[in-house]
Amino acid sequence: MASKTVTRALRSSSRQAMTAVKRPITQRSLTTAALLTAASRPAVARSTARIAVPAIQSRGLKTIDFAGVKEDVYERSDWPREKLLEYFKNDTLALIGYGSQGHGQGLNLRDNGLNVIVGVRKNGASWKEAIEDGWVPGKNLFEIDEAINKGTIVMNLLSDAAQSETWPSIKPLITKGKTLYFSHGFSPVFKDLTKVEVPTDVDVILVAPKGSGRTVRSLFKEGRGINSSIAIFQDVTGKAEEKAVALGVAVGSGYLYKTTFEKEVYSDLYGERGCLMGGIHGMFLAQYEVLRENGHSPSEAFNETVEEATQSLYPLIGKNGMDWMYEACSTTARRGAIDWSSKFKDSLKPVFEELYDSVKTGKETQRSLEFNSQKDYRAKYEQEMQEIRDLEIWRAGKAVRSLRPENN
Ligand SMILES: NC(=O)c1ccc[n+]([C@@H]2O[C@H](COP(=O)([O-])OP(=O)(O)OC[C@H]3O[C@@H](n4cnc5c(N)ncnc54)[C@H](OP(=O)(O)O)[C@@H]3O)[C@@H](O)[C@H]2O)c1
After folding, report:
1. pLDDT number for residue 400
2. For a Cys-Cys bond, which of 145, 166, 247, 396 suits 298, CB 3.0-4.6 Å?
């Protein structure tokens, strides 16, 4: 149904774009409009050695109606750069760990002009990467304990397994007056398993970007901001929320959605095991295998399972929603898809219930900690990755991708 769908979808898309102008602005179009405005503005003159710091546009949203439920959403216009610099003028932000998030958040903080230092294991992969990114040993790059000692705000961006492993040596350094920051609720929420029992006399806050650290960085460089969750685990100063919002903006967030540590970690672990990766991979495999068992060629099975989904339909669903997608496809596709979606929902819902339960009870955390703290966890992952790479579906996919117009 590919070509039919796309042609109709595109036609309908431009129709919709024209009618959207006449409609009152919804929360969704406000977000989009704001981002477009941000992207189209020129960068301000203020710059650092690395990049021209992008303009921060003004937006005034606070409480947004999400399908009838009102939620607080902070946005960065309340925190222009001058205010951030003033707010954090006496702070040293000690960013511990320089993986995906450390890299993105650290460089954004530095480009925003804040006093940020990095703490990682000397001569590890992250140490070398930090030097390549311009962090200087002894100046703003230190070993973990030294960085924590120098910091007033300790941003724990080690991998989740490493946060648990290193906690006995880190905890005594988080002294009264410091702030402890996470980008995932994992360690404190599952403290019975991780043993990350936070000190009772410090603010404990969370800013969790809804995307990889690379995206945190690339959106910042484009003058846009990533959506992030913020949450407070412990507020001893009465300023924890304010600090979380300010830090969220400083690391490169555009909109900050208020949640709790528990909800952040439950939804995150659930989502990545479900529709974001695990569930969708399972569905791809099941559909592909049945097509192959019924005599379809690898290319046909792949095109009808993955290629059309990722290249045509999913981006349109992302842009316009599922209701729009149904309307944009043929009546044949629409009839069958609506009928079968309830069958899939009914059979999958118990699996999702089991998954949520497994997350909430800590079973997923235990599995993750046990697996990812093994000495040979990288080698074990590599073996699993090779098995996935070797699956016919992904080998067929490689050939299909090579035939995309942009690759010729
Ligand atoms: N990645 C994402 O997309 C994402 C998105 C939102 C939130 N988060 C959260 O952000 C936090 C950081 O995640 P990440 O993905 O950026 O982490 P990551 O890429 O896995 O970072 C690993 C860092 O931990 C260090 N590390 C690993 N084992 C260590 C040990 N035993 N002792 C000392 N350091 C150790 C590594 O240093 P070496 O190089 O020296 O090994 C590296 O700097 C996590 O809480 C995660 O859940 C991640």
Report:
1. 95
2. 396
